[in-house]
Amino acid sequence: xxxxxxxxxxxxxxxxxxxxxSLDLAREFGTPLYVLDEMCFRESCRDYYHSFTxxxxxxxxxxGKTLLNLAVCRMVEEEGLGLDVVSGGELFTxxxxxxxxERIYFHGNNKSYAELAMxxxxxxxxxxxxxxxxxxxxxxxxxxAGKKATVILRVTPGIEAHTHSYIRTGQIDSKFxxxxxxxxxxxxxxxxxxxxKIDFKxxxxxxxxxxxxxxxxxxxxxxxxxxxxxxxxxxxxxVKVLDLGGGLGVYYVEGDQPRPVKDYAAVTxxxxxxxxxxxxxxxxxxxxxxxxxxxGPAGTTLYTVGAIKDIPGIRKYLAVDGGMGxxxxxxLYQARYEACLAGKVKxxxxxxxxxAGKCCESGDMLIWDIELPSAETxxxxxxxxxxxxxxxxxxxxxxxxxPAMVLVRGGGAELITRRESYEDLVSHDLIPERLR
Length: 436
Hints:
Layout: E1 8-9, E2 15-17, E3 20-21, H1 22-29, E4 33-37, H2 38-56, E5 59-63, H3 70-78, E6 82-85, H4 88-96, E7 104-106, H5 113-122, E8 126-129, H6 132-145, E9 149-156, E10 178-179, H7 184-194, E11 198-204, H8 215-235, E12 241-243, H9 261-279, E13 285-288, H10 292-295, E14 299-311, E15 315-320, H11 329-333, E16 339-341, E17 351-356, E18 365-372, E19 380-384, E20 404-409, E21 412-417, H12 422-426
Parallel strand pairs: 4-20, 5-6, 5-13, 6-7, 7-8, 8-9, 9-10, 9-11, 11-12, 12-13, 15-17
Antiparallel strand pairs: 1-2, 2-3, 4-14, 14-15, 14-19, 16-19, 17-18, 20-21
Helix pairs in contact: 2-9, 5-6, 8-9
């Protein structure tokens, strides 16, 4: 397993994260347990801030959908990044954490009346408007509230990134955004400029996630800047802000080749400046929206090995006390992960096993075919790079409580999300009077 952030193997031969022995973490907080490496998370934020903001004056906004709780909001704010939220719940979390509303960007393809009203009342910085229905509703709500909504329109550039179909978003056939090719996007820009309570600032796109080819970003810039030029030619309005989304890939397993953030920034900004010069208009302010590449490598999940089942000549299963309830990505995307036995890191692999979860589903697998040292019931299994889309997608299937999360740094561990209890699971249930 590749060691991320502050991970190291200590003198006991145990996996250590943030100066904390992972076996001690499992004993103190129980398993399954999400472990968030604070310094790894912050250093990734700083890498983006330096590469984009300090070097080019671009703005970096963290994609909260990948991992969001009160503590994460605080760290993002302290590192100087903005925040991308996609629901009323994420917005509420940010506001509850005291995140500055003017640095919040409200995304989502189907924002409700209540969510838009909540965001207007909070005076969020930007509404990333996905469609004409939303644009009209937002204008109406802003008029009633006596406010003006600052808007960036999401468009689909017609670019198919080389990634899993479920996380590819820039192609024309997508639930997200207004299509450039068929004229929808231009019609939306013109309508936004007509509406009295809409302050149109710019354009947004997102081509997908887990992207390693930087050429995808330079091509996106070419398409978006060409459209920005067309907007100026047809309306006389300069696009002041261009949000290019996120999607930079991270290392999960051998073969993944993440590109440095500084290279991502250089390729993107070079293309922007070249196209601005070609079209002879001021370069728009650039925004990027990293999520996975900040939160992913900072997260590790600890599990306890339970039942071990060997089917001779077929497969050996290690069952752990978590699974698709705390990490549904393998079931959703055929995601792949690396892992180690946290107390046997120095031991050589001796057997090929598959790691199964405890949900009542054949598809509840965490890892197919991984070489590990000989495992025993009670061993702690550490699965790396689980910071993104694990906690945020966790569920209560089979009425399994969602795990706790601890923030580790300098040998200390602090609980930032408590483990759900069985009482929590029934706390919203009601029994009708006639069934009592």
